C-alpha cells in the first residue's frame, strides 16, 4: 500500500449564483478541490469524499515541501488502500464557508468590496451538496460510483442520496446521524458562545481590527475534542497523571496531563481555523434534519433514495452513537433498500472513523471491492 504522492489543489470559479436554503445566494464564488487516481473512459469510477467540520478538500497525499501535510484520510485512500486509487477516481471538495480555500468569511464580498466576515450567508448541508454537484457537472461526471463521508461528511453523503438519488450508486455514511440530538446542539452552542463572547471577536468583523479571537477558538476546540474521544481512551492515555510530582494547589495553572493536552489542541486549532467558519459549520450541523420536511418520519424521508448503502458506527462513539445509525438502517429497510451495516467495537470514540482500525478498514475494503466489480464487469 502506498501514498498518492504529492498533490496540487485545483480551483473552479462560478459566476452563476448558488441559491441557498436560507433564501440568500452566493455569487462569484470559488471552490477548491483535489483529485486522486484516473477517471475511466465511461466516468463510472468516481467517488466523492465529503469532509467533516475541521477538515478540507485535502483528503490524501501530501504537499511538496511541506512536512506533516498528509491528507486527513490518507490512511484510507491511495494505491492498494481500502479506497484504492488504482481503481477509483477520488474527489475531495472544500465546501463554501470553509477557511481552506473555497469562498468563505475571510474572502471579499463582491457586493461590498469588503471582507465578508459575519456577513457571509448561513450555509447548510443541502447547500454544500448543491455546490459539490456543480463541481461534478464541470468535471463531466453525471453519476458517482459512491459518495463517502464520516460524521458531518456522512450527513452530506446521506443528503446526496436524497437530493440527487440518480447521480450515485452507493452511499457510504460513517459515524453519522440523521440529525443532531439536543445534547449535541448544546455542545455546539457552548462552543459558539466561547467564540462570540471573546473580546477579539468584534461581532465577527475581527479581520478589520487585525486580531483573531483565539481565546474563544481554544475553548471551542477543547469542548469539541472532549466529545470526539471516549472515556476509555482518555483514561488510557492520561488517567489522573499529573504534570508535576507534587500538587500545586492552584485553580488556574495546569495540574493534570489531560489539561495540558486539551490546551495544546486548543492552541493549535486557534492558529489555523477561522472563527466565523466554526460558527457556520456548527450551525450547519445543527440544521441538518431531512426528516423535518416529512413530519419527522425518517422512513418517509428515505423513500426518495435509490442507491445502495453502507453504514458503519463505533461502539464507544457517544456523540454519534450506533443507535443513530440504526435509525437510518431501519428507515432504509422500511423502504426495502439494499443496506449493509457494521457496528465496530472500537475504543476510540467518534475519532475512530479517522483511524486505521483493521476491522473498520476491512469493512470498507470489502465494500469498495464490491463496487469495483460493478464497473469492471
Walkthrough of the structure:
There is one protein chain. By secondary structure, the protein is an alpha/beta fold. The chain folds into two domains: 10-179 and 291-373, 3-Layer(aba) Sandwich (Rossmann fold), CATH 3.40.50; 184-282, Rna Polymerase Sigma Factor, Chain: A (Orthogonal Bundle), CATH 1.10.1740.110. 34% of the residues lie in helices and 15% in strands. The protein is built from ten helices and 14 strands. It has helices at residues 125-139, 152-163, 182-196, 214-228, 231-237, 257-272, 275-287, 298-301, 322-334, 358-376; strands at 10-14, 18-19, 25-26, 29-36, 46-50, 77-78, 83-84, 89-93, 108-109, 114-115, 146-150, 170-174, 308-314, 339-344. Helix 2 links the parallel strand 11 and strand 12 (170-174). The longest helix has 19 residues, at 358-376.
Residue share in β-strands = 15-25%
- Tell me the Rg in angstroms: 21 Å
CATH architecture assignment of the largest domain = 3-Layer(aba) Sandwich
- Cα end-to-end separation: 24 Å
Strand segment tally? 14
Count of the domains: 2
Which range best describes the helical content: under 10%, 10-25%, 25-40%, 40-55%, 55-70% or over 70%?
25-40%
Physical arrangement of strands within the biggest beta sheet: 1-4-8-5-11-12-13-14
Q: Tell me the name of the CATH homologous superfamily of the largest domain.
A: Alpha/Beta hydrolase fold, catalytic domain
CATH topology of the largest domain: Rossmann fold
The structural class is alpha/beta
What average pLDDT do the residues reach?
Answer: 95
State the name of the first-level CATH class of the largest domain. Alpha Beta
Major pleated sheet: 8 strands, mixed
Shape: globular
Amino acid at each position: 500500500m502506498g501514498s498518492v504522492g504529492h498533490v496540487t489543489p485545483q480551483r473552479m470559479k462560478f459566476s452563476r449564483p448558488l441559491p441557498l436554503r436560507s433564501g440568500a445566494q452566493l455569487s462569484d464564488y470559488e471552490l477548491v478541490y483535489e483529485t486522486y487516481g484516473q477517471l475511466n473512459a465511461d466516468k463510472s469510477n468516481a467517488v466523492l469524499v465529503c469532509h467533516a467540520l475541521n477538515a478540507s478538500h485535502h483528503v490524501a497525499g501530501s504537499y511538496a515541501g511541506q512536512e506533516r501535510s498528509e491528507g486527513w484520510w490518507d490512511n484510507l485512500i491511495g494505491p492498494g488502500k481500502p479506497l484504492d486509487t488504482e481503481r477509483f477516481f477520488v474527489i475531495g471538495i472544500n465546501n463554501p464557508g470553509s477557511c481552506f480555500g473555497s469562498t468563505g468569511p475571510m474572502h471579499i464580498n463582491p457586493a461590498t468590496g469588503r471582507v465578508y466576515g459575519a456577513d457571509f450567508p448561513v450555509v447548510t448541508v443541502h447547500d454544500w451538496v448543491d455546490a459539490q454537484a456543480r463541481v461534478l457537472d464541470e468535471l463531466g461526471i453525471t453519476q458517482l460510483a459512491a459518495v463517502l463521508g464520516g460524521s458531518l461528511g456522512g450527513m452530506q453523503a446521506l443528503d446526496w442520496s436524497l437530493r440527487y438519488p440518480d447521480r450515485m450508486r452507493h452511499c457510504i455514511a460513517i459515524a453519522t446521524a440523521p440529525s443532531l440530538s439536543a445534547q449535541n446542539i448544546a455542545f455546539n452552542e457552548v462552543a459558539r458562545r466561547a467564540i462570540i463572547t471573546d473580546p477579539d471577536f468584534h461581532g465577527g468583523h475581527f479581520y478589520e481590527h487585525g486580531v483573531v479571537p483565539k481565546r474563544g477558538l481554544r475553548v471551542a476546540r477543547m469542548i469539541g475534542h472532549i466529545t470526539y474521544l471516549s472515556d476509555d481512551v482518555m483514561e488510557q492515555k492520561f488517567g489522573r497523571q499529573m504534570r508535576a510530582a507534587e500538587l500545586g494547589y492552584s485553580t488556574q495553572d495546569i495540574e493534570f496531563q489531560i489539561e495540558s493536552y486539551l490546551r495544546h489542541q486548543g492552541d493549535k486549532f486557534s492558529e489555523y481555523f477561522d472563527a466565523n467558519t466554526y460558527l457556520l459549520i456548527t450551525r450547519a450541523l445543527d440544521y441538518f434534519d431531512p426528516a423535518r420536511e416529512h413530519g419527522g418520519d425518517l422512513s418517509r424521508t428515505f423513500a426518495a433514495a435509490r442507491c445502495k448503502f453502507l453504514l458503519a458506527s463505533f461502539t464507544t462513539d457517544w456523540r454519534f452513537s450506533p443507535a443513530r445509525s440504526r435509525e437510518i438502517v431501519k428507515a432504509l429497510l422500511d423502504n426495502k433498500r439494499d443496506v449493509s451495516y457494521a457496528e465496530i467495537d472500537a475504543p476510540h470514540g467518534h475519532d475512530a472513523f479517522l483511524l486505521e482500525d483493521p476491522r473498520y478498514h476491512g469493512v470498507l475494503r470489502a465494500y469498495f471491492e464490491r463496487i469495483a466489480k460493478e464497473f469492471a464487469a
